[in-house]
Design goal:
It is built from ten helices and eleven strands. With about 300 residues, the protein is of the alpha+beta class.
């Protein structure tokens, strides 16, 4: 009984150490500025890094399949990746996944940014900036330009893509069967926010684009530092890296690697959303069945 109690004390102490990251010094702060500040002892003891991926030799992969999925942010289970969308009256430690990614790309913390999911052509933040903002003038402003005068500020319209406009995330991952551990595993390779085209934001029918693709392993440090809100216990936040790696979200497969140039499901299941979902489930079951078939003789 004593051993069990000691074990529980150790577990609670360890989890308490991780939990202190959420709002350090919250209960000891005398002014709001002291909230979040760590003591010298806490800074020395901190060793909070993302869980490193183990090395996987090519010969250990008995089966592999690359799939692309869509995470719909309108589903409640995916809200942790979407909110908060309004950060004016909320702490700086709470940001949506979109804000975390764009801020890191802007600051240069994330450099592995590409135009597509095959990671062939890199994009700089200057390349992305044109897709994030649009500056236009009203008809009155154009009349001022035609008359040879400068445009008044009230006649300049600016449209910006914000976290509120993100509707989906597309992810690319690799399912593989590790024959050394006899286990089916998943490795996330890329993530992409899907937003309206800034030039169609004010129209009735919006065009949606892939804003940029990030090579996920290169962004894990940033995503581990950023914490998502834990609705059940705010003292124990979970990082975006943990959410994505542990697949704590709901998604639908929209493409798998195939002989037809990796064509997507909607290219051969056209104008039938139900059949597209059934085909997505068929691809998912095909991957799952491989693991179960390994134990059947």
């Amino acid at each position: 009984m004593m051993n069990v109690r000691n074990f529980l004390i150790v577990v609670i102490s360890i989890t308490g150490g991780f939990a202190s990251y959420a709002q350090s010094n919250l209960l000891n702060a005398k002014t709001p500025d002291e909230i979040g500040l760590k003591t010298a002892a806490q800074l020395i003891s901190d060793n909070d890094k993302p869980l490193a991926y183990g090395y996987v030799h090519d010969r250990d992969i008995l089966m592999g399949k690359t799939v692309w999925e869509i995470i719909d942010l309108s589903e409640k289970i995916n809200f942790a990746l979407y909110f908060p969308i309004d950060t004016a009256n909320i702490g700086s430690d709470r940001r949506s996944l979109y804000d975390v990614l764009t801020k890191a790309v802007r600051s240069g913390e994330i450099t592995e940014v590409y135009t597509d999911s095959y990671f062939n052509t890199k994009k700089s933040f200057q390349d992305i900036q044109s897709s994030l903002s649009r500056i236009d003038t009203t008809d009155v402003g154009r009349e001022q330009v035609n008359a040879g005068s400068s445009v008044s500020p009230e006649y300049i319209l600016r449209s910006d893509i914000t976290a509120q406009d993100v509707t989906q995330y597309k992810i690319k991952g690799y399912w593989y069967f590790d024959k050394r551990q006899s286990e089916l595993k998943y490795r996330l390779l890329g993530i992409c926010p899907v937003t309206p085209d800034v030039y169609s934001m004010n129209s009735d029918e919006k065009d949606y684009i892939e804003l940029f693709w990030i090579f996920f392993p290169a962004a894990r440090e940033v995503l581990h530092e950023a914490k998502a809100f834990n609705d059940k216990n705010s003292a124990m936040p979970i990082s975006f890296d943990q959410i994505l790696n542990s697949r704590r979200f709901n998604s639908v497969i929209y493409k798998e690697e195939n002989v037809y140039g990796d064509r997507s499901i909607d290219e051969y299941m056209k104008d039938n959303a139900q059949n597209q979902l059934l085909e997505s489930d068929r691809v998912k079951e095909k991957i799952r069945d491989f693991e179960s078939d390994m134990w059947n003789y």
